[in-house]
Specification:
Elements lengths: L21 H9 L9 E4 L3 E2 L13 H13 L5 E5 L7 E5 L1 H9 L4 E6 L4 H15 L5 H17 L5 H8 L6 H10 L4 H8 L5 H8 L3 H14 L5 H13 L4 H8 L15 H4 L9 H17 L5
Parallel strand pairs: 2-4, 3-5
Antiparallel strand pairs: 1-5, 3-4
């Protein structure tokens, strides 16, 4: 179980029943100081998306269609989590529940059950990430990468040094600490490579190496990939990462490293000495005539008339 200290900032929120995994819920249940805010109903027009929300709401997905059907028949079972937007009266930021909000919009509903909670950016980001990773069936690699990085950036911004514990929490039991940090590195890919990774056209190991390359170097490499219709191997990606660390990669450098000149094919020459083949010809046969006979025989061999 992750250390209880990780959840000190959760004291003002009752999330035990539907936000976090059992280990987190257990910690919250042990803390008697948890403030249980009552649920309310909020106008959907007052809601705004989480800032830089990394998870895409795919309204064409089958799971979203099922959510719409469920809300149509049963209503919103679990209230969304929102927090007041500082400096904007009557506006609330969605922490957990973007899909539910979009489903209600498609059904033409004006309001939605909600729980309003005051929380800092660090806690809001962790809850947003954790609930999406644990609650969604389909999440792209780049979505995870951006979300994990947002959590780590908030941790550093808040001056919190609980990297390992935080990674365990936001991993939602699906990604190990090591995997979380690998996803964070993938967030440094330029959008073009993120799209290639999400589409399955590039292995994660190769993408991780490319993510260590500077943005300028990545763009040089992407230009090469587009023009030469090929991606680097894992070993090549590692070599490019090392070269970029020494000097920012340029397009010319990428070409020079990835395009290997084709080995020239050595010219071969077949010769026969007259003395070696003279026994097959009449004694006075001239070399030119021997060549003509050999060529005619080869033609017949090629056509299948003669076989060996």
């Amino acid at each position: 179980m992750a250390s209880k200290n990780v959840f000190n900032n959760l004291n003002s929120i009752d999330t035990s029943s539907y936000l976090l995994d059992p280990s987190v819920a257990e910690v919250l249940e042990e803390d008697k100081s948890v403030k249980k805010n009552p649920d309310t109903t909020i106008e959907i027009s007052k809601l705004i998306s989480f800032k830089d929300h990394p998870f895409h709401v795919n309204t064409e997905d089958e799971s979203f269609a099922q959510l719409v059907d469920s809300i149509s028949e049963n209503g919103v079972i679990y209230p969304i989590i929102i927090r007041p937007v500082i400096g904007e009266n009557d506006k609330y930021e969605i922490i957990a529940g973007h899909c539910r909000v979009e489903a209600c919009k498609q059904l033409g509903l004006d309001t939605i059950p909600a729980r309003i909670q005051d929380m800092d950016d660090f806690l809001a980001t962790i809850i947003m990430t954790h609930t999406n990773i644990s609650g969604r069936d389909k999440i792209s690699i780049s979505e995870k990468a951006k979300a994990y990085r947002m959590c780590m950036d908030q941790e550093r911004h808040q001056g919190i040094n609980k990297g390992m514990e935080t990674a365990e929490v936001i991993g939602a039991g699906k990604d190990s600490t090591r995997q979380v940090y690998r996803y964070v590195r993938l967030s440094y890919l330029i959008p073009e490579f993120s799209e290639i990774l999400d589409s399955g056209r590039m292995a994660i190991q190769i993408a991780v190496e490319i993510a260590y390359i500077s943005e300028e170097g990545q763009r040089a490499l992407y230009k090469f990939c587009q023009e030469f219709k090929q991606y680097p191997s894992l070993d090549q990606a590692k070599e490019l990462r090392e070269k970029d660390a020494q000097k920012t990669l340029t397009y010319e450098m990428v070409i020079g490293h990835l395009v290997r000149p084709k080995k020239e094919r050595k010219a071969s020459k077949l010769t026969f000495k007259t003395k070696d083949i003279s026994e097959f010809f009449e004694e006075d046969t001239e070399p030119e005539e021997m060549t003509n006979i050999i060529m005619r025989l080869l033609e017949k061999y090629k056509s299948g008339e003669y076989t060996i």
